[in-house]
Design goal:
Helix 1 packs parallel to helix 4 (67-101) and helix 2 crosses helix 3. This protein has five helices and three strands; from the N terminus they run ααααβββα. The model is unreliable at 1-5 and 152-158 (pLDDT under 50). It is 56% helix and 11% strand. The chain has a three-stranded antiparallel beta sheet with strand order 1-3-2. The protein has helices at 10-19, 25-48, 53-64, 67-101, 151-157, and strands at 122-125, 134-140, 143-148. The N and C termini lie far apart (88 Å). The chain is mainly alpha-helical. It folds into two domains: 10-105, no CATH class; 122-157, no CATH class. InterPro entries: Perm_prefix_1.
């Protein structure tokens, strides 16, 4: 506690009122007390260095900076956890809503699973293969590339 026994000056009261404006009631009083203690302790040190009580209080208030900056800083400290919680809750709610709109767990999606690598086409020069189970993939410069349509033939040729 500070050694100062006099009532806080009106300038300090006005500063504290502006610096704690807009904060939740419980936090407002807590911050008010903390800032007041800080200013009065700093003013006591400044008085010991030769300033008058009025000058020392004014200097201590000036060192804290503008009350709006103190208010903004404290509001961020006290409201940021609430904002993070609100954002997380909102994201969870949107996800649940989209899940429900998509049909929830009653809708199934079929995914194709490739069990083996795609078959590389076979290529021949000069001859063009033919048959019901052959698909021509490309023909360039006398080279014909083809694949078999029948999976049994593909497995046998692998």
């Amino acid at each position: 506690m500070t050694a100062t026994t006099h009532a806080p000056p009106r300038a300090l009261t006005a500063y504290l009122r502006r610096a704690t404006w807009g904060l939740p009631e419980a936090r407002r009083q807590e911050l008010w007390d903390e800032l007041e203690e800080h200013v009065l302790t700093r003013a006591d040190h400044l008085i010991l260095s030769g300033l008058t009580p009025t000058q020392a209080t004014a200097q201590a208030i000036h060192e804290l900076g503008p009350p709006a900056r103190v208010t903004l800083g404290m509001a961020q400290v006290y409201t940021m956890p609430k904002l993070i919680l609100a954002a997380g809750t909102l994201a969870l709610g949107i996800s649940a809503g989209l899940y429900a709109l998509a049909g929830g767990s009653t809708t199934s999606t079929t995914l194709t699973v490739v069990r083996q690598a795609p078959v590389k086409p076979s290529c021949v020069r000069g001859t063009k293969p033919s048959g019901d189970n052959i698909t021509i993939v490309s023909e360039t410069g006398g080279v014909t590339c083809y694949t078999f349509n029948d999976n049994e033939v593909n497995r046998a040729s692998s």
